[in-house]
Amino acid sequence: MNIVCLDMEGVLVPEIWIAFSRATGIDELKRTTRDEPDYDKLMKFRLAILKEHGLGLREIQAVIAGIDPFPGAKEFLDALRKKTQVLILSDTFEQFAAPLMEKLGMPTLFCNSLEVSPDGAITGYRMRIANSKLSTVRALQSIGFDTIAAGDSFNDLGMIRASKAGFLFRSTEKIKADNPDLPAFEEFPPFLAAIEAAL
After folding, report:
1. CATH topology of domain 2-13+70-112+128-198
2. Could you report the per-residue pLDDT of 152-170, keeping only the tens digit for each?
3. What is the pTM of this model?
């Protein structure tokens, strides 16, 4: 039985931290997993900047409220979910993702959670599991699923490489150049066709 595992940010919806960077004018927050392979290092960097500027969950959620999925993302997911099971594997946080999942038709999402103080300051974060995307794909395989995986960032490569078929979607030129054997797509219709062919 097949299950498709997709990254969320950069694939189905815009990068939340980039949108927040634009809204606040804090350029350093544009840094994402496309730029920094070490997620723990990236999050500590982000939390330090939030603290420095006195920004918290409320401000980030206000920006997220104005984010819409990429054009065609919901239709892509709807078409794919008619063919097979789909699981969104993301290193985002449940406090960020909920309104975006609603706009995408409530697909199943596995992600992480933030530690938030009563005044709304983000004090830390809890990863669901170490190497969450690759660990989840391996767990799915251990219970009889064949996985097909796709994403755009460094932290997606493990699950993509471990799956029976894997794709890059709207990735960076560097990641594509470093992984020339992985089929790479920029638009949803050919991406959907490639996944369907792999089922």
Report:
1. Rossmann fold (3.40.50)
2. 999 999 999 999 999 999 9
3. 0.94
